[in-house]
Target: Tetracycline efflux MFS transporter Tet(40)
Amino acid sequence: MFAKNSKAYSVYLLFRFVCSLAVSMSTVLSIVYHLEVVQLDAFQLVLVGTVLETSCFLFEIPTGVVADLYSRRRSVLIGMFLYGLGFLMEGALPWFAPVLLAQVVWGCGDTFITGALEAWIASEEEDKPIDKVFLRGSQMGQIGGVLGVVLGTLLGNINLQMPLILGGSLCLLLGLVLGRIMPETNFSPAIEERQGLLKDFVCLFKLNLGFVKGAPVLLALLAITLCGGLASEGFDRLSTAHFLDDTVIPVIGPLNSVTWFGVISLIGSGLGILASQLLIARMEKKGTVSRTSVVMSTSAGYILFLVLFAVGRSFWFMLLVFLLAGLMRTIKEPVLAAWMNDHVDEKMRATVFSTSGQLDSFGQIIGGPIVGLVAQQVSIPWGLVCTAFLLLPALFLVPVAGKKRD
Model:
């Protein structure tokens, strides 16, 4: 599959596969590692997650500006080395302070990659349909993620530090390989005449802000991204508790309550891979897909399936609608990114994509406490229903984005 593609596209697919493998391997048992090895208490555990999300939020725009001013390729390489350093620090130093610092390091690395990677491949592969490129990349990431979950679980049963250390080492190795094989032929800096780092940052930020204000489609798409962030944190944090507290998880041979969650993750990834392939096949047959229809149907489907999951009490019913809700997000995200790419100036792609990532993080930071409070004061099912309703504005924004033209 790599051999018959252009070099940039092949490198993109390889990156998505290996990076997802390394990150999944490092994070699949991270909470168990924090509890059993680092011995964090509940407050420290929450603080670790908050520091990570806050780091992603704060560094997203500055790192996007770096990618548009200097080099998308260089930004991705910096991100990979920070990923590796953060995971190695977290695994090798099992104390609270180093673990907290590690979240800042690899969270910052994530922001160097987010936006820069999409902007890089969109510029290098201008002649390819970007929907297919992003969908195929998502598919390769899911395959790598499945392998990472399996390897991380196997290694974690030997030693809980091993997945983090080996995952971090793999990130560093990938960074070294990318330094040799990753091309960048179509990049031109957003600002030709430099006035100093701080002034360049401010200038590009103002240009980006003015461009976004004058692009109604992009504004609508960014608002949809914010809604997605608001409606994701509750699903990610409360779904496991809903399974454990509100239904009876069947024990079938080796499938106990813990093993079931690994199996659910693998099934969800498998469905995502299959759905991406079907959508790619449809695009190859018809030439394109209606982004408005895909984003609208997946957003509505997510709301419906999440509400059904919240009110469900039968394990098998809850499992079905939970997988379908996750599948809606898997399909929507690459299509939404491709839609956004068509309304972004080439020189500001990384900054705009980073803005999108920042809005998603901001939505999670705001939405998480809201649904958490509802779950605490009322019930977990009502917290999940609240999560679903936070995506409702997207159903009104999608037709706006579909009708407007820049």
User: Anything to note?
Assistant: Residues 257-286 form the longest helix (30 residues). The CA atoms of residues 77 and 178 lie 7 Å apart. The chain has two domains: 1-182, 209-405. The radius of gyration is 21 Å.
